[in-house]
Amino acid sequence: MPYEANEAIETWMEREAPEEVLEPDLPIIDPHHHLWDIRTFTTTEPYVSFEQKVYLCEEIATDIRESGHNIEKTVFAQCGAFYRGSGPPELRCVGETEFVHGIVAMSNSGLYGDAELCAGIFSAADLRLGVAVEPVLQAHMRASPNFRGIRTAFPGDLNDEFMAGYHLLAKHALSFDNWSPDFERLPTLARLANANPEVTVIVNHLGGKVDPAASMDEIKRWREAIDSVAACPNTVIKCGGGQMRVGGWEPPFHMHQRRSPMGSEAFCELLFPYYQYVIEAFGPDRCMFESNFPVDKECISYRTLWNLFKRIAKRMGLSEPEKADMFSGTAARAYRL
Predict the structure, then answer these.
(1) Measuring CA to CA, how many Å separate 5 from each of 40, 205, 291?
(2) Domains in the chain: how many in total?
(3) What pTM was computed for the model?
């Protein structure tokens, strides 16, 4: 059922000339998508400015089905959805995992297609609580057997309280996802990764904001930051999110900047250097393509996005095993699917 609140983004997407699906049989795990209903949000950024106001089981299932790509599994990404409305503040974030586990049950019914939605889940927990965060992690694990880790920010000084909470991730075999638009934080993230090699650190969205008009100096500093975190053997990175708006900044291909969406070839020409550098720095066995939907949907359709990734893989000359890693294998290992 279409929602009136989604009308603007859906109308823009309808102007796209659908592309032929490249390599439609290639197995894919989408390791990063959100689910939410933010129609009542009026002040909280960035949610209030997201164009896709409702994105639940039916919406992602429709995007997957209509894309024509072979999406076998997905991973839900923390986004502050459906927190508990009452109870201890530190435990309210568990409501997100409880909600997503309901989506898992809906998907398992088979009514929404063959893809196994939310086969992995990462939510939120405040590691600044130190050892007191353990009951929160345990509550997430009780809420869903698909719970795999958390995504949160980290303090620049990596203080003792935060580190005490962080070390609990190793105890419970949980991963740590992180994203900041500021790539200058990546060297500190590298220090965090080195502090506990047992924790898999998952860098989101190419490590920071991707600006096609960035200066050579900024690109140089981004590359150095990428190199710092790639040097940690327990880090992996998500190759995606380069097609999104960040705060008030909009890329030239955003729906507010163009009458209709761009095609995958044009995206490849524009963004290939970023993807190439990250893939070469980490290696395909530590990289995974991601949709970041519905955030990236403001710039690109689900079909075109995966065509873009397939074009990138071809242009880089990736072997079949390397492609298998980037489209499914790395995600399966990182999230233990």
Answers:
(1) 10, 27, 22
(2) 1
(3) 0.97
